[in-house]
Amino acid sequence: MFIGVPKEIKNHEYRVGLTPESVAELISNGHKAVVETGAGLGIGADDEAYVAAGAEIAASAADVFANAEMIVKVKEPQAVERAMLQEGQLLYTYLHLAPDPEQTKDLVDSGAVCIAYETVTDVAGGLPLLKPMSQVAGRMSVQAGAAALEKAHGGRGVLLGGVPGVKPGKVVVIGGGVVGFNAAQMAVGLHADVTILDRNPTALERLENHFESSAKVVYSTQSALEDEVTNADLVIGAVLIPGAAAPKLVSRDLIAKMQPGAVVVDVAIDQGGCFATSKATTHADPTYMVDDVVHYCVANMPGAVARTSTYALNNVTLPHALALANNGWKDAVSRNHHLLNGLNVAYGKVTYKAVADDLGYAFEDPRNLLN
After folding, report:
1. SS3 at position 355
2. Using the 8-state DSSP alphabet, how is residue 323 labeled?
3. What does residue 250 show for φ and ψ, rounded to 5 degrees?
4. Domain identity same for 234 and 108
């Protein structure tokens, strides 16, 4: 199979779909690869590194899209990239379609076969291709929130860890999954006052056993949520419904009740965000104010630590890329129902139910397309 890697063009996105090592692995399996010039510079991989791995170098993204059978990216294709997709071409990347009707329409219209990292599952019911970026984003959320709390950035002027004689900042994490767990770990490490809210009894028990007295674990009722959020210095939104739009758990009224200069970091922004006041921002302009509350809603947080993120991502995406290239997408997903769960759009049909339901499309069972 001929595999293409375009340079990411989303604002301040420095990751790349395949590392030189991953390209070499694909080529050793008998495949060809074309990489857009400069695609790997954000992780310290120049064109020569890709040539040494056996790849061709393309002068433009248009050359990559025109020739490759499978496109491997990191972030969802931007409008100019979607216009270059061809019918039957395989796209393997993060998509986050539920809150993005324009992207979904373009992918449907393209006739391409689109596999989303974020809905591929594993035997434990987890999301293995989303997990490493959730770990990165969860850890980064505390860094970002701590910086936003500085007075010069509009925050309350609170040091999360406090100092002797001055109490630490209060951090509230909404959601105890991968993002929430990693955010809480970082906040606890800074000696902040940490509370984690969740409704899953199994998650609550796991969190309680792990953090013991270093973090409070609270069942998330509306009353508990309001009490914790209104008293917080930093609130981290870490909720996820796989493939679907994130629930708006914090209302505009509740934001207005928060302390002036408090900070919210919405890690769920890729799926539309879990704060009613959230709107996607970029690393170039990451924050804005609503009711004197600082909002950090960067939709590609891990892109800021591109080298760590790219290698972590490739560790989990490469095995499926090999399966797709070695067997073709139909055989690959037929053999692995977890990979089949990643199929979101194919040949003009929406094949992931949560996306179809959220955006008003007819749902097409992906198994119907495998004959």
Report:
1. helix
2. H
3. -115, 115
4. no
Q: Is 126 domain-assigned?
A: no
Q: Convert the pLDDT of each residue in 16-45 to its tens digit.
A: 999 999 999 999 999 999 999 999 999 999
Question: Does residue 124 lie in a domain region?
Answer: no
Annotated catalytic residue within 31, 96, 320, 338: 96
- Measured torsion, CA atoms of residues 298, 295, 267, 232, in degrees rounded to the nearest 10: 150
Is residue 125 included in any domain, yes or no? no
State how far the Cα of 3 lies from the Cα of 111, in Å rounded to an integer: 18
The pair of three-digit structure tokens given for residue 215, joined into one six-digit string: 């973090």
Q: Is the dihedral of CA 345, 349, 352, 355 positive or negative?
A: positive
CATH code: domain of residue 162: 3.40.50.720
Structural domains counted in the chain? 2
Give the count of alpha carbons within 13 A of 277, CB side only: 21
Q: Which tokens belong to 4?
A: 């293409």
Domain membership of residue 358 (yes or no) is yes
Q: Are residues 290 and 183 part of one domain?
A: yes
Beta strands in the chain (DSSP E): 2-5, 32-36, 56-58, 70-72, 90-93, 113-116, 170-174, 193-198, 216-219, 234-237, 263-266, 287-290, 293-296, 343-346, 349-350
pLDDT of 68-108, one tens digit each?
999 999 999 999 999 999 999 999 999 999 999 999 999 99
pTM of the model: 0.91
Given 106, 270, 295, 338, the catalytic residue: 270
What confidence tens digit (pLDDT) does each residue in 291-334 have?
A: 999 999 999 999 999 999 999 999 999 999 999 999 999 999 99
Q: Answer for the pair 17, 3: CB distance below 8 angstroms, yes or no.
A: no
The one-letter code for the residue type at 18 is: L
Indicate if 320 and 280 belong to the same structural domain.
Answer: no
Residue 153 sits in which domain range? 131-299
Please answer whether residues 296 and 287 qualify as being in contact, where contact means their C-beta atoms are separated by less than 8 angstroms: yes
Residues 74 and 153 reside in one and the same domain: no
Q: Check whether residue 235 and residue 333 sit in a common domain.
A: no
- Catalytic, 96? Answer yes
